[in-house]
Structure formats: structure tokens, C-alpha cells
Automatic annotation (TrEMBL):
Gene: dnaJ
Entries under HAMAP family matching the protein: DnaJ
Keywords, comma-separated and alphabetical: Chaperone, Cytoplasm, DNA replication, Metal-binding, Repeat, Stress response, Zinc, Zinc-finger
Species the sequence originates in: Streptomyces chattanoogensis
Biased composition (Polar residues): 358-367
SMART domains given in the database record: DnaJ
Domain J stretches: 4-68
Note on cofactor: Binds 2 Zn(2+) ions per monomer.
The CXXCXGXG motif repeat ranges on this chain: 143-150, 160-167, 186-193, 200-207
Reported function: Participates actively in the response to hyperosmotic and heat shock by preventing the aggregation of stress-denatured proteins and by disaggregating proteins, also in an autonomous, DnaK-independent fashion. Unfolded proteins bind initially to DnaJ; upon interaction with the DnaJ-bound protein, DnaK hydrolyzes its bound ATP, resulting in the formation of a stable complex. GrpE releases ADP from DnaK; ATP binding to DnaK triggers the release of the substrate protein, thus completing the reaction cycle.
CR-type domain: residues covered: 130-212
Zinc fingers (CR-type), renumbered ranges: 130-212
Residues noted as binding Zn(2+) 2 in the record, renumbered to the chain: C160, C163, C186, C189
Subunit structure, interactors included: Homodimer.
Protein name: Chaperone protein DnaJ
């Protein structure tokens, strides 16, 4: 060969592909026609482009090292003029100026699996104090027959004879820029660089199968609707037996027959007769901590609330608990027998409430009334 491509790039004959690429990128930044328009420099740029086209391709490099002409079939890289003459690796030109990393070479069959999510129903007391649950999960696991390789037992993946393991095939086309070499994923191996002649009969070459597993999940105290618990590495195993994704357990708290949860506080309503509200009473209430007596003081009005501190849900972050708020509803009798009616009339007479006038409070204005007053400056 008349041209020593190694000397053109300034590398030794045993230089690695990484060293060849670095040398080309350095020279391309110096000699690119947009940077240095001198005609001699342009010729030099064509030479380094042709040298890199040969030395970066294992097949062409092998032909060149044996004394052949690797560019004879494509007409040579330096024969056409112009900016793009011999443009065998446009992505490497972009690397030289913008620092982008080209995705060359075969892609791995092993990839990370997807995350998975499952919804778990729990009771209020379990959310308040925490619990441990066993859940059934249907996910992809590593194939037990081929251990993720994808090939049938006794066989293995083989190097693709179309791309010779590169995962991509190249094609030279002519354009107004000159001869341009483009690369695309190998259609035979789909870019993997290898093919599996005999796929595993269990997983059909995917390296994973679906299976049902039982997992034990620890539910911390204080979780609420929508809380997600992450179980790292318990999701879907990736193709080719790749690492598993994560499993997320989303909490769904079931409705309680007595208590309504608002944040970490619990609310409930107790209905008592008007006589009990007037005289006072004690009402037993089944709380999350057991039965407790609710002290209804004499004269309690309908709508009043009685707080029981530290009887709510445990705070998820930090110590302590919320409160239990008991709302009192006073029930007025709708039907009275003659004796009960007489007793109430006597009570009303004793209290001077036979003809009560009532106490009226100023009513709240509507939206339009408030707007009218605002515009009138009132």
C-alpha cells in the first residue's frame, strides 16, 4: 500500500481502537475545512478520514494489515472532492467537535427489568400501628432451564455471520457530500452481535419466565392511602436474565365503620338524648386502644367535640400519635307520650321557657351581596 494509514493518524500498528479514535478526533478538530480552509489542509483532512475509515473497521483493518486494498470495492475514501469526501464515520466527526459519544458495537442482551406495582388493602388499626403482610406477586424471574442465557441446554449463542459480531452493518452511498458510509443495526441479529440458533424451550430465548412468588412486606405505622413502599430488586427480571427492577406496594386503607381518618386524627360522632346532654353522662367507646369512657359534661351542646389526645394514628415520621375527636350530636325526641309531654311542660314553666323568643345571629351574606358591598365601599 502506498499510504501508511498508521502514520497518517500518528499511531503505532498495535494501537487500540480507543487510541485510533482519539488520534482521529484530535486531527479532525485541527484539519476540518470549516476550521482551516487551506487547500492543502483539506487534502490532509481527506487522508485522515480515509485512514480512520479503514483502521476503525476491524474487517477493513485486517485486509489492510495483510497488504490488500480495503477501499477498492467502494472506490476509495479520498477519490471524491468536497467536504464529505470519504466520510465513513460522520458520528466520529460530531464526536470530535461536540463531544458526543457514539453508540457503536453490539448491544447487550442483558437489560434491567421493569418496575412493578401491586395494591395492598389494610385495616385502619394496621395502618395506625403497622403490621406485616404476605403478598402474592406475579413477576418475571430468571429462567431456571437456561439460567438467563436464552439458549437451549447444551447450546450457546453464536457470533452473527452477517455483521461478524459488530451488531451493525455498514453501507456506502454517494451524495452531494461525496461517499458517505452509514451504519444500521444488523437485521439478522437485531444489533446484538450474536444469534441463538436453538432458543431455550422454556423461555423461548428471552431468558426469563413468569412465576408467582410470596413476599413478606413490613408495613410501617402511620401509612395512609396512596403510600408506596419500595422493595428494591423485587420487580421484573430483565431480558437475558438482567437485574430485576423494583416492586412498589401501594397502600389502600379500607373504610372503618366508626372512625373517619383526617391526616393522623380520627373522628367519630356519638348521639345522645337531650336529657343526657343536659345532665351529663358517660359513654363507652371502642377505640383503637380498647374501650374508653367518654365523659359528656352537663350542658353539652350539639356540635361540640370531645378530644381524646394520643388516640389517633401514629405519625409516619417522628414520634407520637394524632388525636381522636368525638363529635356530640344531641337527639331531640319527636314523639312523646302524655306523661313525658307534661313533664317537659312543667320543666319549661320552671325555666321560664314556655314562650321562648329565640336568639337570632346575623346571617352570613351571599357571594353577590359581598361583591355589592365591596363595590359600594362598605
Amino acid at each position: 500500500m502506498a499510504t501508511d494509514y498508521y502514520s497518517v493518524l500518528g499511531v503505532s500498528r498495535d494501537a487500540s481502537q480507543d487510541q485510533i479514535k482519539k488520534a482521529f478526533r484530535r486531527l479532525a478538530r485541527e484539519l476540518h475545512p470549516d476550521v482551516n480552509p487551506d487547500p492543502k489542509t483539506q487534502e490532509r483532512f481527506k487522508e485522515i478520514n480515509a485512514a480512520y475509515e479503514v483502521l476503525s473497521d476491524p474487517q477493513k483493518k485486517q485486509v489492510y494489515d495483510l497488504g490488500g486494498d480495503p477501499l477498492s470495492q467502494s472506490g476509495g475514501a479520498g477519490g471524491a472532492g468536497g467536504f464529505g469526501a470519504g466520510f465513513g464515520n460522520f458520528s466520529d466527526i460530531m464526536d470530535a467537535f461536540f463531544g458526543t459519544a457514539s453508540q457503536r458495537g453490539p448491544r447487550s442482551r442483558t437489560r434491567r427489568g421493569q418496575d412493578a406495582m401491586i395494591r395492598l388493602d389494610i385495616e385502619l388499626n394496621e395502618a395506625a400501628f403497622g403490621t406485616t403482610k404476605d403478598i402474592q406477586v406475579d413477576t418475571a424471574i430468571v429462567c431456571t432451564t437456561c439460567t438467563g442465557e436464552g439458549a437451549a441446554p447444551g447450546t450457546s449463542a453464536q457470533t452473527c455471520d452477517m455483521c461478524r459480531g459488530r451488531g451493525e452493518v455498514s453501507q456506502v452511498t454517494r451524495s452531494f457530500l461525496g461517499q458517505v458510509m452509514t451504519s444500521r443495526p444488523c437485521p439478522q441479529c437485531q444489533g446484538f452481535g450474536t444469534v441463538v440458533p436453538t432458543p431455550c424451550p422454556e423461555c423461548a430465548g428471552d431468558g426469563r419466565i413468569r412465576s408467582r412468588r410470596t413476599l413478606t412486606v413490613k408495613i410501617p405505622a402511620g401509612v395512609d392511602n396512596g403510600t408506596r413502599i419500595q422493595l428494591a430488586g423485587e420487580g421484573e427480571v430483565g431480558p437475558g436474565g438482567g437485574p430485576a427492577g423494583d416492586l412498589y406496594v401501594e397502600i389502600h386503607e379500607l373504610a372503618h365503620p366508626v372512625f373517619q381518618r383526617r391526616g393522623d386524627d380520627l373522628h367519630c360522632t356519638v348521639t345522645i338524648p337531650m336529657t343526657a346532654a343536659a345532665l351529663g353522662t358517660k359513654c363507652p367507646l371502642e377505640t383503637l386502644d380498647g374501650v374508653e369512657e367518654i365523659d359528656v359534661r352537663p350542658g353539652t351542646q350539639s356540635g361540640q367535640s370531645i378530644p381524646l389526645h394520643q388516640r389517633g394514628v401514629t405519625h409516619l415520621r417522628g414520634g407520637g400519635r394524632g388525636d381522636l375527636i368525638v363529635h356530640v350530636e344531641v337527639q331531640t325526641p319527636t314523639k312523646l307520650d302524655p306523661e313525658q309531654e307534661e313533664l317537659l311542660r312543667r320543666l319549661a314553666k320552671l325555666r321560664g321557657e314556655e314562650r321562648p323568643t329565640g336568639q337570632f345571629q346575623p346571617g352570613q351574606q351571599g357571594l353577590f351581596s359581598r361583591l355589592k358591598d365591596a363595590f359600594n365601599g362598605r
